Amino acid sequence: xxxxxxxxxxxxxxxxxxxxxxxxxxxxxxxxxxxxxxxxxxxxxxxxxxxxxxxxxxxxxxxxxxxxxxxxxxxxxxxxxxxxxxxxxxxxxxxxxxxxxxxxxxxxxxxxxxxxxxxxxxxxxxxxxxxxxxxxxxxxxxxxxxxxxxxxxxxxxxxxxxxxxxxxxxxxxxxxxxxxxxxxxxxxxxxxxxxxxxxxxxxxxxxxxxxxxxxxxxxxxxxxxxxxxxxxxxxxxxxxxxxxxxxxxxxxxxxxxxxxxxxxxxxxxxxxxxxxxxxxxxxxxxxxxxxxxxxxxxxxxxxxxxxxxxxxxxxxxxxxxxxxxxxxxxxxxxxxxxxxxxxxxxxxxxxxxxxxxxxxxxxxxxxxxxxxxxxxxxxxxxxxxxxxxxxxxxxxxxxxxxxxxxxxxxxxxxxxxxxxxxxxxxxxxxxxxxxxxxxxxxxxxxxxxxxxxxxxxxxxxxxxxxxxxxxxxxxxxxxxxxxxxxxxxxxxxxxxxxxxxxxxxxxxxxxxxxxxxxxxxxxxxxxxxxxxxxxxxxxxxxxxxxxxxxxxxxxxxxxx
Length: 560
Hints:
The protein is α/β, with parallel strands linked by helices. The chain contains 19 helices and 27 strands. The chain is 31% helix and 24% strand. It is globular.
């Protein structure tokens, strides 16, 4: 067991085993069973590259042997930063076979994040593309290796074997005859996901074989997946939503086919859906907005879609209601966190539940509390902080004792930082983030509430609300808006929101018009960038996107 990993209390772990949630199954067991059952069937697709289950099983065995020959062993941590594609799946399952733990890094991460992940995890290896979207990852890797004492092994995707220069090993050379390896302990850490905050360097989330194989099974029950399904991996595969909700791992476990998309644009994804007969995919609301716009002018046949999962950020009912008419398939709302808890709407839920809630937990062993500032449970329907505990929700971030003391209750509930409420039927409704509240002259303004009202306006395509400092009120509210058609003005926005019944103190103080909202590498609106713009500072680079210049000067948008 790794130092710095907080396990479940032994009595709790034993209960999860006795009650059948943890079956002593590793991720290696999951893949090997799928290979035996589906040998010649296509498992992974990227462009013209198609890999069968038999080939996937052998590739993971040969890569595991190759990594072992290069010095990677049980208990080692290896940062894996690869774009969507079969190589990510092969490398991760090869590391699982070795008993080594991959640390998932987003393709958009740069030297600050990669150095931090290597230092925090004590990584001995780093797997990366030579270049991706014009960025030189090879130079980054060499710099990080020079700065992090533990980092010894660099493995690069996309570099020919005849280009090997000694200090970096082409991934194509990481290949050897398979060897017998000890089976991984299901209670051990299988891999590390990253916390999703945009205001600080990510924390490491340890996921064990036991808890993750259970998460995938529970997600498959709440989102019925069979061997006939074809899943389109649209979001980064390192994202928990894409990897295991039920995602790539769940579809492979069911014997289905995973199609990898290099980016989430409708121009690329809609033809893939038509060509491959994609039956479902998972997107965030910002990607859904792009797809809804694309549906208005693209004529791809999307009739193979059975359902569309949408999660990771708040989906407003007005947008949710457009999914079925636009795509001819069901919507499944998802709330989830890399730390654990998942809630899904279900196929037989009433339409109102699907459009307005994030559904119910996927596991009967999930425990939820909604509490006030003093950790007192609030009545149903009251908004409070969401706390969670269960068989796939972590008990502590890796190597973070001080943060863990604040992030967990004494009895092991994780403090999510999400504002939520429960409906009388027990469905979860996410209302925003605790830190996504603007304190304006002592009044609390929920950014999510104002955004929801803005998105109902015909003149608004996308919107995000952030604070900016004010000497008199402490904070004021700035609304960043991507117009739909004729650009709105601040007086017009205020008048429309007043007609909605929004209190005067919740109305935006400023309006800034952008051609597009900046996004993080996970496709969420990057409020760190927007907050810097609102403060008049040079915006830090967004993970995958640079904020577009304003359509017009702020003063003009504000109607001054």
